Amino acid sequence: MVETVSGMRIALPPAHREFQERLRTWLAEHVPPGGLPDADTDEGFRAHRAWERTLHDAGYAGLSWPREHGGAGGDLLHEALFAEEYERARGPVRITRPALRFLGPTIMRFGTPAQQQRWLPRMLRAEDIWSQGFSEPEAGSDLAGIRTRAELRDGRYVVDGQKTWTTYGRFADWVFALVRTGPAGGRHRGLTCLAIDLRSPGVQVRPVRQAHGRTGFAEVFLTGVEVPADQRIGDHDDGWAVAMALLSSERGPDAGGPVRTEQRLLALAGQVARELPADQVAAATRELGAAAARLHAYRAHTHRRVAAGWQGEPAGVESSVVKLYSSELDLDLVELGVDLFGDRRLAEGSAEYLDFWHSRAGRVYGGTAEVQHNVVADRVLGLPR
Ligand SMILES: Cc1cc2nc3c(=O)[nH]c(=O)nc-3n(C[C@H](O)[C@H](O)[C@H](O)COP(=O)(O)OP(=O)(O)OC[C@H]3O[C@@H](n4cnc5c(N)ncnc54)[C@H](O)[C@@H]3O)c2cc1C
C-alpha cells in the first residue's frame, strides 16, 4: 500500500504504516491545543519537561534507540515519520532535541556501557536535560581553536574556561563539552570530550538575551570544575573524532523541516489571498510558486537522505547541501513576507516575528552558511581552495 513520508509517495512497510496511523491518532488526542508556555522561561521549561515525559511514557521518545538504552527499538524511518507527523500536528518544541538527535547517539557510539546505562534512559525521560558545549568566544566555525583547558589529576579532570551560545544552557543539567587536554595551540590534536554536571561547584551559568528577547541561551563559565575521569566520552586527547561524529549526527536529515517550511509558505499564501490588493496578487503568486518549487526540491532531498540513512548509509556531505538549501529557502520566505506586508508582519512575540529571527539563526547554528558553502565548493564541486 502506498503512503507518504516526507511528502513523497512510497510504499511504507505495513508495520510503519500502522505506526503512522497510531501516531496520528495519539497526536490528535494529546498535543496541547494552544501550545505550551515559552520554553525559554522557568514555567515554560517545566511544562516542556513534563510534555517530554508524556511522549516518553507513550513510547515516542528515542524511537530508533535500542531498548537496552530505554528507546523504542525502531529505526530511522520511525523517526522520520514521527518528525513529520509531529510538525503537522504542531507539537511543542522539543527541549530534548540535542540529546535525541546527536548527544545520545554519540554516547551510544563512544561511551562505555556504564555511561550509557547511567545517562541514556534519564535523557529519554527528560530527567536530565543535556546541552552541547562546543562554541567558545574564540572558537565557533574554527572549532579547533578551543581554549577551555582540562588537566587530569588523580583521576579527575580540572576544567577552566568558558563556553557560549549553549542552547537551553540556562536550564540544562549536563553539558557535553569539548575541552583542550593537550598543549595550547594544538588545533584538533589534544582535545577531549567530557560530560560535565552543571550543578558541580565552579560552574556559573549566565543567561544570554537573544535578538528576539528570549533568554534560554547561556554562557557557561567553568572555574576549577572537577570532573571524574569516568565522565570522559571517548579517549583522552581524541575528542576531535568524537566531536566530528557528533556534528555529523547534528546535520543528519530532519524530516520535520520541510513540513515547517510548508506551514510557513501556506500561512503566507493565505495572507496574500486575504490581505493583498488585487493588482499585487499575480506578482506575489509567482514568488510563492517559485518558493513552492524549492520546497518540493527540499523535500525530495530530505526524503532521499532519510532513505539513505534507513539503509545504513552515514550522513555525508549532502547534509551541507540540504542545510544550505533549506536555510536559504526559510530566509527568503521570511523576506518575501516582509517585502509584501512590511513590518506589520513582525508584531513582537508573533509566530512571524520568531520566524524572522529563527531564519537568521538557521544560517549560523550547526555550521554557518559560509562554511557550508566552503564544504560544498571543496567536497562536492572539487573547486581549488
Ligand atoms: C540558534 C543557535 C544555537 C546554537 N547552539 C549552540 C549550542 O547549543 N552549543 C554550541 O556549542 N554552540 C551553539 N551555537 C553556536 C554555533 O555553533 C556558532 O555560532 C557557529 O559555529 C559559528 O561560530 P561563531 O558564532 O563563533 O562565528 P564565527 O565562526 O566567528 O564566524 C563569523 C562569521 O565569519 C564567517 N566565517 C568563519 N569562518 C569562515 C571561513 N573559513 N570561510 C568563510 N567564512 C567564514 C562565518 O560564516 C560568520 O559569518 C548556536 C548558534 C545559534 C545561532
UniProtKB/TrEMBL annotation:
SUPFAM superfamilies: Acyl-CoA dehydrogenase C-terminal domain-like (SSF47203), Acyl-CoA dehydrogenase NM domain-like (SSF56645)
All copies of domain Acyl-CoA dehydrogenase/oxidase C-terminal, residue ranges: 237-381
GO annotation, cellular component aspect: plasma membrane
Residue span, Acyl-CoA dehydrogenase/oxidase N-terminal domain: 14-127
Keyword Oxidoreductase: yes
Gene Ontology molecular function terms on file: flavin adenine dinucleotide binding; oxidoreductase activity, acting on the CH-CH group of donors
Alphabetical keyword list: FAD, Flavoprotein, Oxidoreductase
Keyword Disulfide bond: no
Residue ranges occupied by any Acyl-CoA oxidase/dehydrogenase middle domain in the UniProt entry: 133-219
Cofactor: FAD
Similarity-based family: Belongs to the acyl-CoA dehydrogenase family.
PANTHER family found in the cross-reference section: ACYL-COA DEHYDROGENASE, ACYL-COA DEHYDROGENASE FADE29
Name the UniProt record assigns to this protein: Acyl-CoA dehydrogenase
Organism of derivation: Modestobacter versicolor
Upper lineage: Bacteria, Bacillati, Actinomycetota, Actinomycetes, Geodermatophilales
